[in-house]
Model the fold of this input.
Amino acid sequence: MDTEPKKRVSGCPVAYGLDSFGDRWSLLIIRDLMVHGKKTYSEFLGSDEGIATNILINRLKTLEADGILSKSRDPDNRRSFTYALTPKGKDLAPIVIEIIRWSGKHDDRPSALKPAVRAVEEDPDGFEKRLRGACD
Amino acid sequence: MDTEPKKRVSGCPVAYGLDSFGDRWSLLIIRDLMVHGKKTYSEFLGSDEGIATNILINRLKTLEADGILSKSRDPDNRRSFTYALTPKGKDLAPIVIEIIRWSGKHDDRPSALKPAVRAVEEDPDGFEKRLRGACD
DNA sequence: TAATTTGCTTGCATTTTGCAAGTTATTTTC
DNA sequence: GAAAATAACTTGCAAAATGCAAGCAAATTA
Done:
């Protein structure tokens, strides 16, 4: 595996969070697991934002090494692997939800997508349960 | 001003949030404003994590351009400027809080700092009000 | 008036990201 | 059963972002 970004040592909880998932791609992978029910390398690769293959595999390995997701073989297809959120990964749901709320309030671009924003506002607890459960 | 990182165009609220503050430093500056009451360039520069001067000024300008913080002259010192969170910036408080909670639960390093974690758990609403008010 | 402080800028090396083109081990299709 | 397709990567290289160190001008303090 090639190198992962260096981690800071300040002890600050915000810095720990940023060291774990504070980059351009990690939370999008986690979003795909939670919101879109994606589970495999090629599903993640197909997302709208267009992550590069080497970055994707690096993030998957780093997130696995950090205990945020787990990897297992697909029992039905020997060349396929299934990624799932661990409990530590599922605990990111409130962060994802608050980002969705913030963007829902402040993203004024016409292209802004609002379905998830509406789902959060209509039933926050149900939405969180959905995010935690979608990746089992 | 030198170039700011490119923004994505997917319309996804999670991607919009990451484009706005999803890098190694932005949320640490916002933490300094909210949690530590810092307001000036040199106060941000003094934080434990050790941001470089060119990165700091770049992030301050980008966050200002994105409407997350505002810059004004210090009336008492003509070479000093005061940075403050806008309403859009203050609305990041719930995200910061959820990151603190997540790290408080999952950072097992002996060096992990817990005061803010305890403050959040003891009085979440009061803590959020403090974060929103500390930067006026 | 000589430091010192504040808020920057600049140049350059290192690290990370992004793109494109492989590669290998399975399935699928014909 | 051979050929094509698919899934999960790997590799090489260019571009962009980050990090480090040294400066610099205007305002303030000693």
